[in-house]
Amino acid sequence: MKELNLKNIHEDINRCFLCKKPRCRNNCPIDTPIPDIIEMFKDGKLEEAGEILFNNNPLSAICGVICPHEDQCLGNCIRGVKSEPVKFHELETYISSEYLKNARFKQDGVINNRIAIVGSGPAGITLAFILAKKGYKITIFEKNSEIGGVLRYGIPDFRLSREILDNIEERLLELNVKIRYNALVGPVLTIDKLLEDGYSAIFIGTGVWNPRTLSIKGESLGHVHYAINYLKSPRSFRLGEKVVIIGAGNVAMDAARTAKYYGAKDVRVVYRKDFEDMTATNAEINDAKEEGVDFELFKAPVEIVDEGVVFIDTKKVEDEDGKVRLINIEGSEKLMEADSVIIAVSQSPKNNIVSNTQNLETNRHGLLVIDDIGHTTKQGVFASGDVVTGARTVVEAVAHAKLVAETIHEYCQSAN
Ligand SMILES: Cc1cc2nc3c(=O)[nH]c(=O)nc-3n(C[C@H](O)[C@H](O)[C@H](O)COP(=O)(O)OP(=O)(O)OC[C@H]3O[C@@H](n4cnc5c(N)ncnc54)[C@H](O)[C@@H]3O)c2cc1C
Question: Quick check: 114 and 139 in contact, CB under 8 A?
Fold first, then answer.
């Protein structure tokens, strides 16, 4: 994670025009009051700014580091039209990390309802903060031994410091949040059991942890891994020198950079289209390039074999309607040698909970069905985050979880 220097932040922030119609704020999915924060920073009101940022986005310290800023505040800064855009996210990271480290939280009151939160990723943490502050008795059930979800078990620590997560956990504990670690909800501890035990509402924020497959021969061979499994504990893996990563999103970039970080010499990201089609941010692609990751474009995997992966060349063609299609170039199949192959082509939800719960509907992708404000199809059960939207971003999970927290609050108050 980049070291922040307060002097540099000051210089950069002084370049802000404080626009009347701030495009940075308008393009922030959680409507961060950017100009107000900048004014407070200039007035030296750091604690106040930290509190406002936290109340608007409990994961502000994390969003400052890992949001796709080039599509949001940074990419829409008017300064960026003629020169360098203002890096508000660096100021946000600085203020919000200090606030999380130094603030001491307490509950606003006592509300005698128990709420169960299943999953401690961005969605679950957001909900826990909002409802615990109001006074609810919160229990988080987390299947892993530490909280954070993808923030801890997906995004590499060279990109996101674990200290922020530890501070978040401390603040949650101050709000009397109980955390049950290594507690998988579904098969044994069922949703119905939680309801029987008197939880007034249950929130499901379990994310997407089933790797999607390529559906080609060879995916079960011993040197093939799914990125989401690899990133969970990269130290356990012996990948060898030559690693081929198949995919083009941020997960693929994280897997490639991590493989390089742990010593693989020749790491190649292979993708069936062009750079402009990749879903990874330019920042992540550039970081990967700078760290020595190679890219092979217009190649689609055909089969994985002991020696590596057979790819076929592809190309874009325009049909009569002007639509661009991707076609394989027959006869161009060629082996790309690899000691290990990592597949990073997105994720879908696991079904531990839905297969053990009546009346909890999913759509054809296995994602939980909810209404606009977070009610699932089962009374008293709510959901948000990737398990509802599919793989998206942290800020989107937080923004929607904020809304669902209010839905749960209203639900509990109307029942009391
Ligand atoms: C490698 C990777 C890199 C990413 N990089 C970025 C990025 O740079 N910027 C960005 O904005 N987004 C990024 N994302 C996406 C982002 O992390 C997710 O959109 C976000 O974490 C979703 O939050 P969530 O709370 O819905 O789910 P998750 O973060 O997946 O958390 C779900 C939690 O539920 C727990 N859980 C699951 N099932 C159960 C169960 N049955 N019982 C108990 N606990 C359970 C899991 O262990 C986990 O802790 C990345 C994703 C990945 C995989």
Answer: yes
Answer whether 249 contacts ligand 1 (Cβ < 6 A).
Answer: no
- What's the pTM? 0.96
Using CB atoms within 10 Å of the CB of residue 174, give its burial: 0 to 12 exposed, 13 to 18 middle, 19+ buried.
Answer: middle
Helix (H, G, I), strand (E, B) or coil at 140: strand
Cα separation, 371 vs 388, whole angstroms:
10
Amino acid 105 reads F
**What does residue 191 show for φ and ψ, rounded to 5 degrees?**
-60, -40
327 alpha carbon to ligand 1 midpoint, in Å?
33
207 CB less than 6 Å from ligand 1?
yes
Residue 349, φ and ψ in degrees, nearest 5: -75, 155
Contact 273, 248 (CB under 8 A): yes
How many Å apart are CA 23 and CA 178, to the nearest integer? Answer: 40
Helices (H), 175-249: 191-196, 227-232
Q: What letters, b where the CB count within 10 A reaches 16 and e where it falls short, cover 208-241?
A: bbebbebeeebbeeebbbbbbbbbeebeebebee
pLDDT tens for the 416 residues of the chain, in order: 667 788 899 899 999 999 999 999 999 999 999 999 999 999 999 999 999 999 999 999 999 999 999 999 999 999 999 999 999 999 999 999 999 999 999 999 999 999 999 999 999 999 999 999 999 999 999 999 999 999 999 999 999 999 999 999 999 999 999 999 999 999 999 999 999 999 999 999 999 999 999 999 999 999 999 999 999 999 999 999 999 999 999 999 999 999 999 999 999 999 999 999 999 999 999 999 999 999 999 999 999 999 999 999 999 999 888 899 999 999 999 999 999 999 999 999 999 999 999 999 999 999 999 999 999 999 999 999 999 999 999 999 999 999 999 999 999 999 87
Report the amino acid identity of residue 355: S
Q: Which pair of structure tokens corresponds to residue 351?
A: 């079904």
Instruction: Give, for ligand 1, the residue of 28, 394, 395 to mutate: max count of ligand atoms closer than 8 Å to Cβ.
Output: 394
Q: DSSP readout, 252-313?
A: HHHHHHHHHHTT-SEEEEE-SS-GGG--S-HHHHHHHHHTT-EEE-SEEEEEEETTEEEEEE
Question: How far is the CA of 374 from the CAs of 119, 123, 130, 136, 192, in angstroms?
Answer: 16, 12, 15, 18, 19
Angle at 105 between CA 164 and CA 136, to 5 degrees: 105
Instruction: Read off φ and ψ for residue 217, nearest 5 degrees.
Output: -70, 140
